Amino acid sequence: MSKYLVLIYQDDAVARQAEGESVSPAYQEFMQRRDGSLLSGAALQPASTATSVRRDGSGGFSVTDGPFAESKETLGGYFLIEAADLDEALEIAKEVPAGVGVEVRPVRLVS
Predict the structure, then answer these.
(1) 20 to 30 A from 32, CA-CA: which of 38, 57, 60, 109?
(2) Residue-number span of the structural domain to which 7 is assigned
(3) Residue 6 neighbours by CB distance under 10 Å
(4) Where are the beta strands (DSSP E) in 1-111?
(5) pLDDT tens string 56-87
């Protein structure tokens, strides 16, 4: 089995409205249905709480408030899943009740 990270994107305005709410019924149903594949997951605080760190080109760093890019769509959470292959990971990802969509990335294991 391989591990995949499912990055959940949502509209930032919708995310701000949902602050403090409990897990929605759609997510609860998804998590129960896919319990055997879900290794972990979490919602993230709104993009307004993000801090970005970038290399400044002269050996130092620039630290700024907010995410890297200005966008209505922000990273809202993730699931770390286990799947036989990318096809199975995509089938699981299609069930995530995300507002905007998800991105699926294989986890690269290094030793």
Answers:
(1) 109
(2) 2-106
(3) 24
(4) 2-11, 38-43, 51-55, 61-65, 73-83, 101-106
(5) 888 898 888 876 666 667 888 899 999 999 99
Phi-psi region of 92 (alpha: psi -120 to 50; beta: other; left: phi over 0): alpha
Q: How far is CA 24 from the centre of its chain?
A: 16
**Domain-located, residue 111:** no
C-alpha 103/C-alpha 100 separation (Å) is 10
User: In terms of Cα–Cα distance, which of 98, 97, 44 is closest to 67?
Assistant: 44
Domain count of the fold of the chain: 1
Per the structure block, which two tokens stand in for 103? 């991105």
Could you tell me if residue 97 is inside a domain? yes
Nearest CA to 4 out of 103, 110, 111 is that of 103
